Amino acid sequence: MISPRHESISRVALREVMRAGRRPTWRLVFDWVLAAAGIGVAAWQLAPTLAAVDDLGARLAALHWNWLIAIVALSVGSLFAYGELHRRLLRSGGARMRVRTVQTVNFIADAFAETLPSAGAAAGTAYTVAALRSRGADTALSLWSAVVAALLSAVVLLIPAPLVFSANGLVTWLAALALCCALLVAVAVAWWVVRRPRSVRWVAHKIVATARHLPVVRDERWVREKPNPVDIVTERIAAFRMPARDWTWCVLVALLSWAADYVALASCVAAIGEPVPWSSVALGYLAVQGSIGLQLTPAGAGPAEAGLLASLTAGGMAAASAAVVVVLYRAINWVGLAAIGWVVFGVTARKHTRT
């Protein structure tokens, strides 16, 4: 646990996260217009292909239900594994929370992140920090674990990505290996810097000093406010350390989360009775995750469906079959999981209202 001084400083960090999730009216309108455009792009890409499917209803009714059960289980398991990653990070900082408590926060935060346009990730992080703090974790640890969980998951997915490109003929194997090595070196350098608070503080201040001169970044509190938010973030990074064994477990859990999600997508292909083009499925999966990461639309709606559809058809699947796979995967993995998160949110809110 951290000192009272650190806790008071971290309250300011929480305010910064909350402020990051707020949007002026014009930005909210723009976000919703962009979200509607993304959904429109998805419909534009999928509707003509689905319309060409002979007896779509009969085709959906012929889906293999054992595979559908597996898809749901794998999708839920993937999100559950991410919550377990978060819980292990909290435990490493001294906050021992029940699995049910962390998973409740995890599913609700995922609903925020996958539903709200543009600000979904910030809103999900803000909710995670506030919810964990209300359940007994200090603010600094909650913020640190949320950020580290997201970064660690991104790194675990990003490093092998060049190998997927190579398997689909987009780059040579030699170039893919070189990119993987370069990413590993970049991660190692970043880890070396993170373990040195002075280096982190110097880099952070340089970034802020440059960004504040850009037309879209005019927030002076990052420079003038006391205590300085930049120093707050760097102090938080320096406050926590984990042994190598805990980092190993966290990496394995992050890999398990991605693997379950990837197999869920492959199971969507199997559910319609088609052979699984594993490399094309992997490329489409990266397209979906990249679209989600850009945060332009809720859960990458539009670019995600277009990229997955293009990857599957390029891998040899018929356009009609590929469209059914896209709809099935996104209906379960995006709409379904978000719906579960909002149900959990409603149940939790009602329980808190009664108490």
Automatic annotation (TrEMBL):
It comes from the Bacteria. InterPro entries: L-PG_synthase/AglD. It is found in: Cell membrane. It is a multi-pass membrane protein. The chain crosses the membrane at residues 28-47, 67-85, 141-165, 171-194, 249-272, 331-349. GO terms for cellular component: plasma membrane. Keywords: Cell membrane, Membrane, Transmembrane, Transmembrane helix. This is Flippase-like domain-containing protein. It comes from Amycolatopsis alkalitolerans.
